[in-house]
Write a structure and sequence with these properties.
By secondary structure, the chain is α/β, with parallel strands linked by helices. It is 20% helix and 23% strand.
Length: 332
């Protein structure tokens, strides 16, 4: 069974609520780092269009030479993969718990106590989305693990952003990466900014650059960044008691709970369709769980959730990445 009750003292009174542990859920979505495309039953393709060599010499009767004014149309797809939460338990295990008084009077009708049901379903969703948040970035269907096992086995149901970035030679990576520290992180962020200026200046030449371009980091890296601002800079007027994370050279620095350490991503990430980062899913309504008796002649109940997810990005050459991870990591 998947129900372990350690508190069976059953004396005195019991609160009508439970404490729940801290969880971070779908942090990437909640912070508006990606656009969420839902309603995908099987596969969803986003088209891309580009034009090269728009100009040619003027002619009274121009002709097309197949080189000038050449349109290229292609697309990238989101194909959400199945994810399932499932567990079974016997509500009668609560007969030795404080919540026994909430159990039905008759044994045949015995179900979960109402208080336990509400909180068990809530923590099931919280923990599930916590794993999916990490999988969005660090997922790999080719980890050397058994799907569903602890650790990487929990991250094997789709390929995340990092695996896709590192297997894409057109993604712009900073060479010779090293472990990030509070004394080098500002230099590495500046390298990324300089790389954009050298390779894709359109991203930082428009007025909307400050809203669209963001530095994405892990929670641990965000702490290093804040330490660097306090110790490693000589900026006057920096109030270290202010809440929030200060921008770097005007660009927002966004810590994401599922994001890996020793990694910085600099790109356009917004919660609208012009974002370069997408998450695809079957439906935003898939955050509901099914709680039912396992079968008519059984005392057991099951709790089940089904959802589908995938991640994708629009243009490889608009992804600027600093990381110590390599493609091989996602096959280990």
């Amino acid at each position: 069974m998947s129900l372990v009750i350690n508190d069976t003292s059953y004396a005195g009174t019991f609160a009508s609520y439970f404490w729940l542990p801290a969880t971070f859920g779908m942090d990437t979505v909640q912070k508006g780092a990606v656009y969420v495309q839902d309603g995908i039953k099987k596969k969803h393709t986003i088209g891309r269009v580009d034009l090269s060599n728009p100009l040619q010499p003027r002619a009274a009767t121009p002709t097309s030479n197949g080189v000038n004014g050449k349109f290229t149309i292609d697309g990238r797809s989101l194909e959400p993969q199945d994810h399932m939460f499932y567990t079974e338990f016997n509500p009668r295990d609560f007969e030795s718990h404080w919540l026994a008084e909430q159990l039905s009077p008759t044994l045949l009708a015995r179900e979960l106590p109402v208080t336990a049901e509400n909180y068990m379903m809530q923590i099931a969703l919280n923990r599930t989305f916590e794993i999916i948040e990490t999988e969005n970035w660090m997922g790999s269907t080719t980890y050397n693990a058994t799907p569903g096992d602890p650790g990487n086995g929990q991250l094997m149901f789709m390929d995340g952003f990092m695996k896709k970035f590192l297997n894409d030679s057109a993604v712009v990576q900073i060479a010779n990466p090293v472990t990030l520290t509070s004394s080098n992180i500002l230099d590495k962020m500046t390298l990324l900014l300089n790389s954009v200026a050298a390779n894709k200046k359109a991203l930082i030449s428009k007025a909307s650059q400050w809203d669209r371009m963001k530095f994405f980091v892990s929670v641990n890296t965000a702490v290093l960044y804040q330490d660097a601002l306090v110790v490693g800079t000589t900026f006057k007027g920096l109030n270290t008691m202010d809440r929030g994370i200060k921008p770097w050279k005007g660009y927002e620095v966004v810590p994401l709970a599922g994001f890996p350490d020793n990694t910085i991503l600099f790109c356009e990430g917004m919660p609208d369709p012009t974002s370069n980062l997408y998450i695809g899913m079957n439906s935003t309504e898939d955050n509901n769980l099914q709680l039912m008796r396992l079968q008519n002649n059984s005392e057991l109940f099951f709790l089940k959730g089904l959802m589908k997810f995938d991640v994708q990005y629009g243009f490889s050459d608009q992804i600027f990445l600093y990381t110590t991870y390599t493609a091989d990591y996602f096959n280990s």
